[in-house]
Amino acid sequence: MAESRLQTQRLELKYIVPEDLAVRIRDFLLPFLQIDEFGASQPDLSYPVHSLYLDSPDLFTYHSTINGDRNRYKLRIRFYEGRPQAPVYFEIKRRQDNAIYKQRCAVVREAVHEVMAGVIPDRRSLVEGGPDEERSLYSFCRLVNQLQARPIAHVAYRREAWLSMGNNRTRVTMDRRVQTCREPSIRLDAKLTDPVTVFGDDVVLELKFTGRFPNWMSELVQVFGLEPCSAAKYVDGIERIKENADTPLMPAIDGMNRRRRSRPSMQTTWH
Fold it and tell me: Which CATH number does the domain 9-244 belong to among 3.40.109.10, 3.40.50.2300, 3.20.100.30, 3.90.1150.10?
């Protein structure tokens, strides 16, 4: 399953909301957005998302988020289902100030281990062998090599996605049942090993948009009294793993007791 209509450049706001409020927000969205095609046929209007996060031995990308670096990135291998024919996505998610930039390349599952071993696959291994996809894969491999990155954690959740009608300007997602576990290998299995819950029963709500902040989104924020917050699934997941672990995740973060620094609220209007 592929995530529909990827936004490669956007602004986004995140909120953590209880389930009853998420249901009310869904009703608010109906005049403005349409349900994602992959969730439309499901009883919960959602589809599964699995991300294998990679990081350096000293957890460079983890610490970049903890430290609040305004320019940072994450490396992940994303998949949506376990079928051997289903594609796997190599992704770079960058943050530059308030803007989010995403690069990704879809690779056939058989080529994943070769890529992680340093072998650049030929075009037959790419689901779409265009120049943008090739550049994205080269960038991913370069950063993996630069960081000597390796798998650290598997993050999984159910995503309810709402899309703008006829364009790719706005997108609202609600992620439920966010779980994570240690994952030191390239294991593309939807079943997590000894998972921990990251946000409890709460829902991670994300408002994603290009250009100006839509008026109806501003109204949504005001009507429901939403307060922006940090909700980084990889980093918050690592924190939960540390809290529940009997043994260290890895030496670089063993014994750390630092809590996530709260970030100042982002304004909800752009001009």
Answer: 3.20.100.30
pTM given for the model: 0.87
Give residue 82's pLDDT: 82
CA distance 56 to 252: 10
Cβ pair 42, 232 in contact under 8 A: no
CB neighbour list of residue 113: distance below 8 Å, 6 or more residues apart: 186
Provide the 10 A C-beta neighbour count for residue 74: 22
**pLDDT at residue 265 tops 50:** no
Q: What confidence tens digit (pLDDT) does each residue in 160-178 have?
A: 999 998 777 899 999 999 9
| Residues 6+ away with beta carbon under 8 Å from 128 | 106
Pick the closest to residue 11 from 228, 161, 203, 185 (CA basis): 228
Q: Interior CA angle at 147 toward 143 and 148, to 5°?
A: 110
Measured CA to CA, the distance from residue 233 to residue 219 in angstroms comes to: 27
Confidence of residue 268 (pLDDT cuts 50, 70, 90): very low
From CA 107, how far away is CA 123, in angstroms rounded?
Answer: 9
- Per-domain residue ranges of the chain: 9-244
In the predicted model, is pLDDT for residue 256 greater than 60? no
